[in-house]
Amino acid sequence: MQNIWFSSDTHYHHKNIVRGTSSWSDEENDGSSHSRQSTRDFDTLEEHDDELVKVFNGLIKPNDILYHLGDWSFGGHEQIKLFRNRLQCKNIHLIFGNHDQHIEPISSPYRELFSSCNHYLELSLKLGTERSGKYGKTRFCLSHYSHRVWNKSHHGSIHLYGHSHGTLPGFGKSMDVGVDTNNLYPYHLDEILDIMKNKNIEFVDHHNFSTN
Questions:
Q1: Can you give the pTM of this predicted structure?
Q2: Nearest residue to 66 via CA among 56, 53, 74
Q3: What is the DSSP string of 167-202?
Q4: pLDDT by residue (tens digit) across 116-170?
Q5: Cα-flanking dihedrals φ and ψ of residue 140, to 5°?
Q6: C-alpha pair distances (Å), 181 with each of 30, 162, 175
Q7: Which domains are delineated in the chain?
Q8: What is the C-alpha separation between 41 and 83, in angstroms, rounded?
Q9: What is residue 28's predicted lDDT score, i.e. its pLDDT?
Q10: What is the distance between the alpha carbons of residues 179 and 14, in angstroms, rounded to a whole number?
């Protein structure tokens, strides 16, 4: 059985996101967009990178599926392949983030490291229980960026995003699946479904239950 996982914003080998190596200011309001307050609590890049690999490989098995919603790595081209080769999962689908510029071009050799590469992706997953024999399809809309409305949001589809590192709460049936929201851990599909069953559909425009 393949387990399905979601994550985002690993920022593998990103010097400034690691507290011990960051050059960001200690002040939150010094006019810059980042501060050391938002860094990850590691002394070295190696500790940070090793922990990411340990956490992901400890949960995600080789034949599982991982949807990664962008900002894969930092620190040069070589880090893209290094991070990919350190992960045992064979099936990684990448949604481009704003820092994936070396992977994004059609001619990029790094695309072949992933099962697919997209700017946006929709999934229709058949979910249910074998015991009851009742299955239904749930639509997932995956993007690096948070949306206020998304395809079939007025019918309960689920929107997953990253980019904001836990600073932008989900709206309706949406959530940030970045590692900074989950102590570096990826989210299992079942975790997301448990979270979403307690969230209400939000209607923000003319669409409602009766709208196609």
A1: 0.91
A2: 56
A3: SS---SSEEE-BGGGTTTPPEEHHHHHHHHTTS---
A4: 999 999 999 987 654 444 457 899 999 999 999 999 999 999 999 999 999 999 9
A5: -120, 130
A6: 25, 10, 10
A7: 4-196 (3.60.21.10)
A8: 20
A9: 54
A10: 14
Identity of the residue numbered 31: G
Quote the pLDDT of residue 151: 96
Q: Which helix (H) or strand (E) holds 51?
A: helix 45-59
Tell the residue number behind the tokens 């709206």, with chain if given.
Answer: 171
List Cα–Cα distances, 26 to 13, 31, 36, 48, 163, in angstroms: 21, 12, 5, 20, 22
Indicate the Cα dihedral angle 13, 86, 112, 91, nearest 10°.
-120
* Residue type present at position 57: N
Please report which helix (H) or strand (E) contains residue 117, including its range: strand 116-118
* Interatomic CA distance for residues 31 and 150, integer angstroms: 33
* Closest alpha carbon to 178 in 140, 139, 146: 146
The whole-angstrom separation of Cα 13 and Cα 51 is 11
The predicted pLDDT at position 126 comes to 82
**Would you say the C-alpha torsion 96, 57, 77, 73 has a positive or negative sign?**
positive
